[in-house]
């Protein structure tokens, strides 16, 4: 299983960004997917997750600004980030959990930088 995250970049505060995580090696619909981020000097934290059935969960402070979604036909998971602020700066990672072998798989991360 391989995950390829993309879509990061430099964006101004108040702007939007959409991250993508392309899954290969397995049908993504079988996976629980999640986005994590790690800000400079901080621990990695969970941002959002989506189950194989489409149930979503978010970090409370991000509700209403970030949306996680999946396109199983494209084996891709997305993170739509709206109204971003400098505190959203960090490296964003996608993670897949495969329940059948109870393993986690991580993408390489994509850098998001929000300028004020």
What does this structure look like?
The chain is built from no helices and eleven strands. The model has no long low-confidence stretch (mean pLDDT 94). Strands 2, 4, 5, 6, 9, 10 and 11 form a seven-stranded mixed sheet that branches. A four-stranded antiparallel sheet has the order 1-3-8-7, with no helix packed on it. The N and C termini lie far apart (37 Å). It has 116 residues and is mainly β.
Q: What's this, in brief?
A:
With about 120 residues, the chain is mainly β.
Question: How do the helices and strands follow one another from N- to C-terminus?
Answer: EEEEEEEEEEE
Gross geometry: globular
The structure class reads mainly beta
Low-confidence stretches: none
> Biggest β-sheet: count, sense, barrel?
7 strands, mixed
* Discrete helix count: 0
The beta-strand count equals 11
Radius of gyration from CA coordinates: 13 Å
Question: Which strand-content bin applies to the residues?
Answer: over 45%
- Ends apart, CA distance between termini: 37 Å
Mean pLDDT: 94
* Helical amount: under 10%
Q: Can you lay out the helices and strands and say which pair or pack?
A:
Layout: E1 2-6, E2 9-12, E3 17-24, E4 32-38, E5 45-50, E6 56-58, E7 66-71, E8 76-81, E9 90-98, E10 103-106, E11 110-115
Parallel strand pairs: 2-11
Antiparallel strand pairs: 1-3, 3-8, 4-5, 4-9, 5-6, 7-8, 9-10, 9-11
